Amino acid sequence: MATLTASAPKTGVNRVRIWRNFDFTLMGVTLVLIIYGVLMIRSATLNATDPNIANRVERQIQYAIIGMIFLLMTAAFDYRSLGALHRYIYMFLIGLLALVKLLGTVGGAGAQRWLTVGIPVQPSEIAKMLLIIVLAQHLQHQYQKLDKLKTVLMSFAYIGIPAVLIFTQPNLSITILVVVTWFVMVWAAGLRIKHMLLFAVIAVIAGGVLWSKLEDYQRGRIFSFLNCSGNQDTCYNINQAKISIGSGGLLGQGYANGTQTQLRFLRVRWTDFIYSVIAHELGFVGAVLVLILIGIVLWRILRAAALARDPLGSLICYGVATHVFFQTVVSIGMNLQLVPVTGLTLPFISSGGSSLLTLLFGIGLVQSVVMRHKQIDF
Description:
Layout: H1 12-18, H2 24-44, H3 51-54, H4 56-76, H5 79-84, H6 86-103, E1 105-106, E2 112-117, E3 119-121, H7 123-141, H8 149-167, H9 172-189, H10 196-213, H11 216-226, H12 236-246, H13 259-262, H14 274-307, H15 311-335, H16 353-371
Antiparallel strand pairs: 1-2, 2-3
């Protein structure tokens, strides 16, 4: 990766020139996934009487439009300028997460995760993507010092405060995602193998501490995953999800015709269990198509990481790719009872405005990197 060099102010001609590197494949596949998601949310909420459920499609479209505007605005903005603002971004996200503790809306199971600013937003979703910028800039500055344990621990301290604030909402799934993202980015930056054993020990200790702090419903999800036969009430939706997937066959029961979804046997089908809806109504073909589309998104993001002209751009792309990959694996895994049920959405597909906005912002960051991967005479 080339070393970042100083440059003169941009000209209008060069601002136009960088758009020639815009990744239209990434943009196109992202749009297809969003449309796919809107269609499946419509099927999952068809004939719903609860206004909060019935309006899911309209809200998803609204968030998608706002998100695409954010994507283009972020792509137009130089990611290196965002990196230079990392201290202010860090203070902003800490303040935002602290504000949730004071003014946040309490939802199901007593979780306090949302702020209402005209539209409801989940600050932890915003924070997880902003942390990528902050951590990437920090690691770029410390690129030559990652052989020292102090440097690695300092990078972990960067995410420590936000992670604790997110965990106490409580939001275990995003807390884990933040930690996983840190590990991948530090590994990509040059984490030494000699530090791996130490972090494994720390992870075991931290796991014990986290277990003692979990809410009852969070422990219930883990127990139901380990012993579903002894927790039939808790496991009801897991069982219904497996029935939905298993009954889909090759081509499914038909769009908006699935008995599991239309007769409402499958709960929370527009968010956590939307993959089961896809497999049930569109079959194996529809379920695999989702994996292929998300795979293309990951390929284009990793391509941008390889093309990046500096460590900052490369690490930003690795961070965004980690988010998309981890959320996909966990979301599909819980539908198949391979992992405990969490609140992580299936990227670009599940109903969830804050998640969709955050992911599109991340794609905008990737576009900003790939658009500027060539040396340009400003």
